[in-house]
Design goal:
- The protein is of the alpha+beta class.
- Helix content is 27%, strand content 40%.
- The strands form 2 sheets. Strands 3-4-2-5 form a 4-stranded antiparallel β-sheet, covered by helices on one side.
- It starts with a strand and ends with a strand.
- 22% of the residues are buried.
Length: 217
């Protein structure tokens, strides 16, 4: 008779208070020449960095997460109804990220600085957690504990006892540690005269699972 086992999926849950603000920005510039597009992109990023330094950031605080430049074409029909391609120029897309401790007054000053730069990036504001490893570790502990409790109940109900753990399976997927609170504010409206918005983001709620296999006696 083969070894008897019991397989249980454990669910771990953690609720955490956001302590990190993340601003992601996208700069788009187009010019008919490659050098012109690069010059526009360089000028826009320099303007934003200068504005951020003026309110206390270091030059290296603004990180590039993606940068690309490609030809941009537009499809159209000519007078005979044939599809043609029109060259619109070189489009440069620069994606940026700025992170800092949760502070709504600082966020307001940061947005005002970005608005004053004249670069006009698209942007998104998210609330997250600084110590992501601590949350991940707690999730795993909670998930294994949950699996153990379920396994103990099932074994007892069947008049059996749990033996040694044979295997633990975990997907190691990336956790989304963001609050569901979304902050949208037109960048053009940000100014030093605007009062700091005092909001309390929703707590971050995240779940994860592990699968544990025990022998049963």
């Amino acid at each position: 008779m083969g070894d008897r086992t019991i397989t249980v999926k454990g669910i771990g849950s953690v609720t955490a208070k956001p302590d990190l603000i993340i601003i992601t920005m996208v700069l788009e510039n187009t010019d008919y020449s490659y050098s012109g597009a690069m010059q526009l992109a360089s000028g826009a990023i320099d303007a934003i960095r200068t504005a951020l330094v003026s309110v206390g950031y270091k030059k290296g605080d603004l990180k590039t997460t993606d940068f690309n430049i490609n030809t941009d074409y537009e499809s159209y029909k000519d007078t005979k109804g044939n599809w043609k391609q029109k060259f619109n120029g070189y489009k440069c897309i620069h994606k940026l990220k700025l992170e800092f401790d949760f502070d709504m007054e600082r966020l307001n000053k940061t947005l005002s600085a970005i608005a004053s730069s004249g670069a006009n990036p698209e942007f998104e504001i998210n609330f997250s957690i600084k110590d992501k490893n601590a949350v991940s570790n707690q999730l795993l502990q909670n998930a294994v504990k949950n699996a153990s409790e379920k396994a103990a109940v099932l074994a007892a109900a069947a008049g059996l006892s749990l033996g040694a753990i044979q295997r633990i399976d975990y997907s190691w997927g990336e956790l989304r540690l963001y609050s569901d609170t979304k902050m949208i504010e037109p960048l053009c409206c940000a100014s030093d005269a605007a009062p700091a918005i005092d909001i309390e983001p929703e707590d971050i709620k995240v779940n994860d699972t592990v699968t544990v296999v025990w022998t049963i006696d």
